[in-house]
Task: structure prediction
Amino acid sequence: MENVLEVKELTTQFKGKVGYLTVVDKVDFTVRKGEVMGIVGESGCGKSVTSLSILQLLDKKGKVSGGEIRFKDIDLLKQGEKELRKIRGKEISMIFQDPMTSLNPVLTIGKQIGEIIVKHEKQKGSNVKSKVVELLQLVGIPRANELFHEYPHRLSGGMKQRVMIAMAIACNPSLLIADEPTTALDVTIQAQILDLLRSLKDDMDMSILLITHDLGVVAEICDRVVVMYAGQVVETTDSRTLLRNPRHPYTTGLIESTPQQSTIGKRLKSIPGQVPTPDEYGMGCRFADRCPKAMEICNHGVPPLLMIDENTSCRCWLYKEEEHGV
Amino acid sequence: MTKLSEAYKPIQARSIPKAPLNVKFDTLKKIMSYKRAKYCLAFLFLIVIIGVFAPILAPYNPNKLFYDALLQPPSKEHLLGTDAIGRDTLSRLIYGVRVTLSVSVFALGITFVAGTFIGLICAYIGGVVDNILMRIMDILLALPSIILALAIVAILGPSLTNAMLAVGIASIPGFARLIRGAALTIKSSGYVEASRSIGSSHSWILRRQFLPNVTGVLIVYTTLFIGVAILDTAALSFIGLGAQPPTSEWGTMLSEGKDYLYEAWWLATFPGLAITAVVFSVNFLGDALRDVFDPKSKG
Result:
């Protein structure tokens, strides 16, 4: 299948008190046409920074210091601000975690969605308006006509997220980056939003890069998954394999700490300790301190990301000796 | 658009209702629903009309001297009395509308445009630009605005135009600081990031995301400032650096009248009342405007 997005050795650094801290460290992944790619990890693993790096929306303290982000045939890192503006929203769009703060409280819904159409499609007046109403209906908002003139505070969280999605898909983007789109919503609404994303993806033939910390969401919607830990990719595979046969001890830990049918009545496991911050990364494997299977070698070197089989690669010394390696 | 999955098939598009958008008319209607604001607006409108038709409405030429009627109390011939050299107070008051209103609007214009611009730029760019501009503003703020205005007039020479300019410029720092404060909270908000993610340029974000959000602050401060502008111009005129005699300007009249407070109360009272009434109306109107422009108060 054709790749929509190829990220190679992406490295993003943030200015700290002493020099630069590497927050995203040589991350590789690809998003294929029409698939949902998930990025999973705990808070502070660099998931969001990765997504912001793609559109280069990092604030002044952060910068992409290496690698390549290839979108279709364009290297996004080589584009100037002006070219990027034409890509943002039109080719690649983004939805954010908190719909409550992502809409401007003093502009009406219609105006906010209309802006992107005015900007990228150079339409005017009633054309924009009917397009907006169409979009609102498309994302399943009832009373779309009346809502056109409403302000965001009249909407619930789920509705606001639908509005954000309407904005994001307004120009038929090829890639939608969804940064924890359901985290701030309650469970029933989560399911609705995921449903909506999936059907939009099918109807509009776009790819989705979904960032989440919820393996339930991964099981629900993702085709393939990248597991990130402390700024590195630790495992890449398809979501079915990931959930049934996790390779990396971190992935295993994540799955075990998710409530499941089989764990009813038992005490839920958790991964001890915390994600190290970028200034605490040592010489060895970054997960070693929390890993139940840690060995001597783990403290001495960062394991390479090995292809274990066709679909799966994993960053762990456990797989070094195995024959499918390298 | 492309085909839709069953679950999200749109309801057959009804005709899109006409927006309640003839925006200006709409806003006016809303203002009219505030009783106090309605009267204030009517009053201000009346004042403007008076200013426009001053030559028709004023009973006498404002500079005509009635040698036989010095310091006359209000009477049939001179409804609001006469001053020490026999000029009709009512006529001077009516002509004064023109000067006083244009002074405050002009000064306001300068402050409004420059203050908003500097404030937004500082908040949005931040860093060195913010630091330099704001330190300059701090230095200017350290002086009372009237002293600053004095210095500016001293450089430019005394005249009404320069007084307006001075009052306008002297008020920029406070205004800029206020707007910057309001804009800083917007800068870090999610919708600015969201706007960038759909490809907005900097100027677009400033105009479409920042400006509408600071309108509330802008309007309230602006209306308050009209009062200050009138008073500051009057103060400059009082020390002879503003409106030059025989221009009839409310502030000048007030300060002239103050010398005769015991003998001729009407001289200071009526210009004072006029200033008070205008300032009050503008402030009440400002309150109502803030409510009207705040989406959360729109039922």
Remarks:
- Chain A touches chain B through 55 residues (CB under 8 Å).
- Chain A has a mean pLDDT of 87.
- Residues 102-172 of chain A form one domain.
